[in-house]
Amino acid sequence: MASASERLLEDISAARKLYADVEAISADGECISFRFGGEEFTVVLQGSYGEECTVYGPNDYEASCAGSIVDVIGVVLQGSGDRVADAMDDEDDEDDDVADAHGFDMSVASRASAPPPEVAADILQLAAYGIGCTVNVCVAGEARLTLALPLPGEISWSTAEAWGLDRDRPLYASLSIGTQHYWRDPSQRLDVDFFQEKTVGGVPTLAAGRQLSNIAKTFWRHLSGMGAQTAQPCLGTRVSDRLVAKQAAALSECLRFEGVLLPLARYMTLRLPCLHEFCVICDEPLVFPPLLQPAVCTRELCSYSLRVFGDAIAGEFAKRSVDMEVWDLLAAMAICAGRMPEDRMAVLFDGDYFPALFLPGSSVPAFRAGRDGLQRLRGLLRMLEDRRNKSAKDLGIGWLHEVGGPVAGPATPDDELLPQLLLWLWDSNRSYLTALSEETRIQALQTPLQYLLLSAPPEQEEAFQKLKLQHGSDFCFHGSPPANWHCILRQGLKNASGTSLMTSGQAHGPGIYLARDSSTSAGYSGRECRRGGNPPPGPAMEREVTGERLHDPDSFSMLAICEVAQVPSLKKCGNVWVCRQEAAVVTRLFLVYQRSEIPQLDLADAELDRQLVQLVRRMRDG
């Protein structure tokens, strides 16, 4: 068997032949360098040759990859957008046409030799399942491929938007595969990267990209006979039998296929519609009822990994940088929840909804749910409120970076935990909440603070659409105090009657309480409704730009606009509607009224109903 240095020399020779415009490929100790387009790139080996490495280049270029120097250079060329086209000849027009059909440049394929026979046979099976495949590079018994996976029909436009996917584009899976993978050798790695488009500037990161890669990695463990890693148990919580069975059924269906590419592609297609049901990191079923947004489970190892390594292990599923205004709103809700009496606060931060925060150097939570833990949490929320108030005066929405950033100078334990709490407030939110643009807002609702609020997971939305088709639907308000919304965004809008979550009694029986008029729901929100007239001018709101607005936990009130299917069990008691069937109620909009009373609105108004119908239709169909 050739030594690592001999394999490196052979691969350098192969790379010089394959990449005509890559120059000066040379090795020096743990570094390999090459020039492309007049620019210098350096490959730093992290271990043995062929394993993980980091590539550094001009303009702060940095990429992590693995494989031979042929693979590494291929990754650099593919990531350089239009420079790939400049580097390669355009002599093979047929290959260019194939690349154009997929929407991005794959002209490296014009230099590729034939893939190994096992890979070629596997590719032939893909077309029957509507899965495209482009061969990018073939060298030394390995092929670099890109699979094109159509997004399943179960993923609606609104679900795709919540998950950071483009409903109109396929999902591309990029991987290197060789003969040994077809032996299903457990010692072989199968790393899959996912993207939806390539631009001149590179490949935009998918919010769900790391979760998808973790799903593919877990599947390879099963396909190669290693089996799944043993998941850390969740104390006091039972994993859903339905989700365990769902995952097992998908594995059973796909493991019966021959090859590697087809079973992998089929498994990813089956798992795509249920990203919200399994942990972003460990790919185990979530122990709490899933809502729309993907989430990290409450197993301590996953909680610790998320807090310590952040996006490096969980990807960008949280998209904190996109919705700073929403992050501020979540913080304001939590501040209100932290002001509640101890017994109520214990309900709002119960069990799986209690933050796991870690002091530096420890993998054990700094405190846990319980009386002492609640007092620590209350103290942190008060500290958050104090620092938010001080920083926001000068920095506006930038207070999130100030308070959530690294601690400068000597730090107390609470100083270390506060940034983690702020991150948890975003990461633990499992509803899709995003500000409406000025053009999209409905002026008749008399507040600029209008947000799209989607919490129903795809299967519940599908069930609702069936009920709506059968019985019709109407829009209703739902009111609840700000502290309760901290809980609702994480657990969903529930029939809380007779449970510890109930706050307003059940005078009209058990169910979700709704109303067609805002004045009825305003009473449940803890605020009065303004009677008629135009809204008072009030003081100007700081940072009026959408995405940068702040919220005042001392003066705001909140209403949700829900769509309600007119199921036979819906009970109408004057102005109050009571729906016992949770599947018949889905949230659509979230309204925040700041420094003023809630205006008197009636959703039976034909024009307002028309505008809401149009907004919901755009939300679902794009």
Summarize the structure.
This protein has 622 residues and is of the alpha+beta class. The protein is built from 20 helices and 17 strands.
Structural class: alpha+beta
Q: Share of helix among residues? A: 25-40%
Instruction: Please indicate the percent range of residues in DSSP E strands (runs of 2 or more).
Output: 15-25%
- The shape, in one word, is globular
Number of helices: 20
Counting DSSP E segments of at least 2 residues, the number of strands comes to 17
Query: Strands across the major sheet, in which order?
Result: 1-2-3-4-5
Integer-rounded radius of gyration: 27 Å
Q: Segments where pLDDT lies below 50 for 5+ residues?
A: 81-112, 531-543
Mean pLDDT, rounded to whole units? 83
Strand count, sense and barrel status of the largest sheet are:
5 strands, antiparallel
Oligomeric composition of the shown chains: single chain
Amino- and carboxy-terminal Cα gap: 57 Å
